[in-house]
Amino acid sequence: MIEALETLVFSLADDELLIGHRHAEWIGLGPILEEDIAFASIAQDETGHAQAYYQLLTDLGLRTPDEYAFRREAQAFRSAHLVELPNFDYDYGLALMRHFLYDAAEQVRLEALRRSSYDPLAGLAERLAREEKYHWMHARAWIQRLGRSTEEAHLRLQSALDQLFPYAWMLFEEMPYEAEMVEAGWLPPSAELRERWLTLIAPILTDAQLTWHEPTPEHLLALQGARRGVRSPYFDALYAEMTEVSASDPDAEW
Amino acid sequence: MYGTLTLRPEDIENWGKKVHEEDPEKLAEFEARIARGEKIEPHDWMPFEYRRQLIRLIEQHAHSEIIGALPEGTWITRAPNFRRKLALMAKVQDEVGHAQLLYSAAETLGKSREQMINDLLSGKSKYSNVFNYPAKTWADTAIIAWLVDAGAIINQTTNSRGSYGPYVRALERICWEESFHLKYGYDSVVYLATGTPKQRAMLQDALNRWWRPIMHFFGPPDTQSVHTETLLKWKIKLATNDEMRQQFLDMYVPKIWELGLTIPDPNLRKNPETGRWEYSDPNWDEFWRVINGDGPCNKERLAVRRFAEEKGRWVREALLSPTARYVTPLA
Amino acid sequence: MASLDPRIARAEPELWNLPQRPLQPLEHWQTYEVFVMRTRGTHAQHVGSLHAPDPEMAMILAKEQYARRSQCVALWVVPTDAILWTNPEDEDLFLPATDKSYREPQGYLHTRERIEQYRDRLKPIQS
Question: Is residue B34 included in any domain, yes or no?
Answer without folding.
Answer: yes
